[in-house]
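debug: dumping io for the single-chain case to check the tokenizer round-trip. Nothing else runs in this session.
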Amino acid sequence: MLQVQDISFGYNNQDTISNLSFELESGKNLAILGESGCGKSTLLKLLYGMYDLKSGVIFFDQKPILGPKFKLLPGDDFSKYLAQDFGLMPYSTVAENVGSFLSNMFPEKKQGRIDELLEMVEMIDYKHIKPQFLSGGQQQRVALAKVLAQKPQLLLLDEPFSQIDAFRKNVLRRNLFHYLNQKNISCIIATHDCSDALSFTDETIILKDGKVVAKGISKALYQNPPNYYCASLFGEVNEIAEKYLGISESEKKQLVYASQLKVTTESLLKVEVLFSYYRGNVYLIKAKYSGGIIFFEHHSELNRNMICFLALQEK
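debug: decoded output
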């Protein structure tokens, strides 16, 4: 189990991470969500022991994770960290990179391990190619295989799919998290993509200005976001007064995702269409009403200046 107890850290006088605490059970996956600059990458580096804490402690299976004041090199045998710069050796082959820290005593076993991981990230056909000739997305997949090669108990991933195209990303995510579950590897992924959190992690922590503003089961956070900032990380969201939704006559605002609204024959929420954005399976409609700008989803394009009425989708 990973235990993070009241940690704080700052590069200068201002804290980048402030009084942060959480626990992660063995074999569980955790997403760290938040806007750019909120402290996601810094938190992963602290968990890997790259920086010294200002205060607080971090333990993994009751072993302290220590910074450079106590250790010459960051990291431990039980954890591996994949940064956004990948850390590959450009003049060694893909296979040599993945197997760089594996023992040479059993070459057939080593080669089998390399092939297994390259198959998982769909890079087996490039095993004899040097990373300098690969695209950024291909390098990212090789780097992922490399950090998994040593069978870590805790895997720290910083935006691991940022340079991978949508098709490959979806396949890779499914392959990766299936592999992690099979091997009972704990994973913490810093990401801006809500799909990483909702589809593949057990829990999510949402950061803002280095502080935890929400944490819990990923699905529960999506369904019941505590504020607009948290909801906005999961998709297009509106703040709508209850009087427009027929809940009450109050001006109290409710958080409503665009996908939760539907066009109806008549309601208290009358809107004028401004623009339709095609998203493949649906259109995202931007409209205005007496309360401001609103977004909702519709199965077809709506003409500009069209007047329509909206209501909440039935659960």
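debug: round-trip ok. The CA atoms of residues 71 and 153 lie 20 Å apart.
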